[in-house]
Sequence to fold (508 residues):
Amino acid sequence: MLQELLNESMDTLRTAIEANTASLKSRETGTLLQVGGGIALVKGLPGVTSEALLEFPGGVLGVAINLEPDHVGVMLLDDSDQLTAGAEVMLTGRETDAPVGAGLIGRVIDATGRVLDRGKALHSGERRPIERDAPAIIDRAPVSIPLETGIKAIDALIPIGRGQRELIVGDRQTGKTSLAVDTIINQRDRNMVCIYCAVGQRGTAVARVVDTLRKNEAMAHTIVVVASDEDPPGLRFITPYAATTMAEFFMEKGQDVLIVFDDLTRHARAYRELSLLLRRPPGREAYPGDIFYIHSRLLERATRLSSDRGGGSLTALPIIETQAQDISAYIPTNLISITDGQIYVSPTLFHKGLLPAIDVGKSVSRVGGKTQYAAFRSVASDLRLSYSQFEELETFARFATRLDDETRATIEHGRRVREVLKQSEHRPLRASEQMVILKTVNARLLDDIVLDQISDAEAAIQQRVLNELPELCERMEAGDKLDDSQWQQVLDVVKKELSQLKPDSQER
Fold:
């Protein structure tokens, strides 16, 4: 009996040993020569390639970016305080990659996939390289579908299409991030995945954005990718590329994606810091010579794919910070030349309380009205020109003592257009709501309303039209063009609502 048990045990042990035969794997290792400032110099590793992922003691990761004859320059992605010269460095055999998948939606993570929202660990099994080639020209389709931001000044005057790259530029603290966040909020129930990529921002600023998205129920379709100002410059540098890789996963499945880079000024500074520490030759403003290329290869990945490739799109809203309104500085001019237009946020308008502080004269969308709904295009086609003419006329009128009635009427109408283009923060509007109020102001129906009453009149008009003409509103949002009789129905409802305003509200 004892012998039988012994034989069974031996058979079980023999089977287990045969099933778990060990195999030898070669590992290429090097020696850490120097570390500090977020970079490391490593000796050895003859098989290393650019963008290869290296592992240091303690699980610290780094990316090989400088391949010199006698050493490798590495940017570190983690805290390097515990690393010392002489430590062993291992080549992982992987390119620098990032997690992808639907499991990332609603989470706050960093470029490597570490969770920052105190939630459960990610269960995304797939990872993709952060550096990928942009889609070929043959695989792209024209940008023709609008990206609705919910902001009147943008949707009417600077329309953005799905697959476009539209730069948001302006001085600090002028509302650039608010424009991007409102655009994300407006994508609720539109089957669009949004990615907010924060580079070099303070933790409190990112926390406010995340809190705003949660309060407005926008985290259900949003991924937040963060590299704070306290993180190593290497992590700040790779974060936009990792976020774009996450976005491309959804685009290649036929979905529409919006990605916000907030902001690329800090991204450029992180790359300049790395380059100077690695003793690369400095150029203009101490930036390395390839600073244009690092942004162009990032933003070229935003596009609309052809129907053969699934028809998905990736829309990029990079944010750039200027100093003293100098949009001709080095990094802003680089990005203006790469993107398909820019939205200029003016500190002058911001301090006057004209929010959002978008300078229509300095803003442009090179895709233009091709992406607008037909009904929207009919009400907004002449608005940009007339508004710019009003601003010039208003400036000129300050020096005139007497104005004729026509000039005075033009100025009063322009002031009401400007009042209508104002909009509260985090209150994006439906396309039909925007069209109704723009049609109203174009028809000069608000010229007899005092400026202080415009916002109340606007809200009342929008609500009444939505209640009484729901079918026409649906047609507007479906992209159908309305004929003159249908627009007349809208204006008749508007006139009824305006007639019910108090008589004293119509006194100037």
Remarks:
- The chain has three domains: 29-95, 99-371, 378-506.
